[in-house]
Structure formats: C-alpha cells, structure tokens
Amino acid sequence: MIISIANHKGGVAKTTLAVNVADALAREGLDVLVVDLDPQANVTALLYSAEETPGVPLEKVLDGSTSVAQAVIEQTTVDGVHLIGCSLKLANLERQLHATPFASTSLLSQKLAPVTKVYDVIILDTPPALSFLTANALAASDFVFTPLSSGSKLSLIGADDLVAFIHQAKIANPRLKFGGAVLTRHDSRKKVCRLVQEAASEYYERVLENTMPLTTDVDKGQIVNKTVLQLERDSNVSRAVVGIAREMMSITGLESKPKDSK
Q: What number of CA atoms fall less than 13 Å from residue 2's CA on the CB side?
C-alpha cells in the first residue's frame, strides 16, 4: 500500500501529518516506510537528522546510481518507521529529469517496486507544488490524502487546481483513489474553522471525520524531534492522530497486526 500526502499549498502541516501518522501506524503493528520527496527535507530532518544528509538519499535512487534497498534508513527517531531521506540536491535532479525528453512520471513507482512488498504501507511526503515529483508520487500511489489548514480562509484557494491534478493522476494511474481531506490546526470553537470544514466538503469528495487540533504540542515535538505520541501518548492531539491514522486504515483497507506477528 502506497499513500501520498499532498497539497501544493505550504503551511498546511503536511510533513507533520505524514510523520505523526507514520508513528501511529507503526504502533498498530504495521511495517512503515516514509519517503521524503520534498527537497526541503523536513521529514528527513525529523526522522533522521537536521544536520546530516543521508548517505544514500532519494536522488541517488532516482538517478539510477544506487538501489532503493541501499537508501532505506532503518534506525530513525521513531520505532517501527523506516525512511528514505533526501537533500536539497533533489530539487536539481527534479529540474534535470523534467527537462529530459520522455521524462516518465512512473520513475518513482519503478524505483520503489523492490520494497513495496516489504512494507505494509509506504507514505510519500510530497513537495508543496503540483510538480514532477508530486506527479511521480501520485503515479506510484494507491491513495492520496490532502491536509488542509482549518484555521485559514486561504486554505481552499487553489483547491480546484489540486483536484484537477489528482484527476489527471487518476488517468495515468487508474488504481489511485482520493482518500480524503484532513483538517489540521482545527478548532471547532472558531467560526473560520467551521466554515472551512463545511466548504471543504464541497470541494473534496471526502473529508475525514477526525481532525488534528490546533495545539503547541506539535511545535514542541518538532523542536525536540519527537512525534506527539512520543511526547505524551494520552494528550488530545495524540488521540486525534491515532483517530486520523485509524480512519485512514479503514478507508484504505489496512489492518492492525499483532506485534508478535512481525
């Protein structure tokens, strides 16, 4: 199972959602691999290191200089979550690949093929752009989920472009399904959040019932390189992340596995 987390708008907690849901899914007994497709390398910083570049980053897999198996980092900051990290050089490679005649949006899918059966779920964190890398992610995915910042009226600007992009991806990849929009930084007491929640249901065919609340715990976790579940398992935001992860599992057909089944 391959899941993309995608939105071409920045500041919607895309990386936060990807990393925290990955932790929650690992706690459900699933074997999880996260692939950092964003040249900003925020996932890599959170799961591996903000100072060091992975020895075998994703760009070396995509340019054919190494195998995908060699790029997998098994020891990350989150138990049960493996990583294929990247660096800023991924942006240069994207420009080179996109300028190449007959550039293929199936490149990532081909490169990931050897590890797709090794993991229960592979989560792709995409760049905030409707780009060649995002197209490759959707072409490789079974489902795509879109985070939306609930506290901003601007969060739905460009939604038509994103929906159209996903529709085009479905033509190239018929197995791709829209899993749903996920509201982040949501506070149901605020009118703007309620309005965004209502409007989102008009743009997207599904909006998840579970939402990620507006809280400083997420920022605290990023400062100390911890997920919200690592910080405090019984907090409101931790329960919310577990709810989102389990709703995603229900939508995609993923099932929990006993820990001793690994």
A: 24
Q: How far apart are CA 38 and CA 40, in angstroms?
A: 5
Listed as ranges, residues in the chain with pLDDT below 70 are 102, 153, 215-222, 259-262
Q: With contact defined as beta carbons under 8 Å apart, do 237 and 218 qualify?
A: yes
Pick the CATH number of 2-261 from 3.90.700.10, 3.30.1360.120, 3.40.50.2020, 3.40.50.300: 3.40.50.300
Bridge-partner residues for 257, per DSSP?
Answer: none
163-222: per-residue pLDDT in tens? 999 999 999 899 999 999 999 887 777 877 788 888 888 888 899 999 888 765 666 666
Its pTM stands at 0.93
**Residue 230 φ then ψ, to 5°:** -70, -35
Domain boundaries, the chain: 2-261
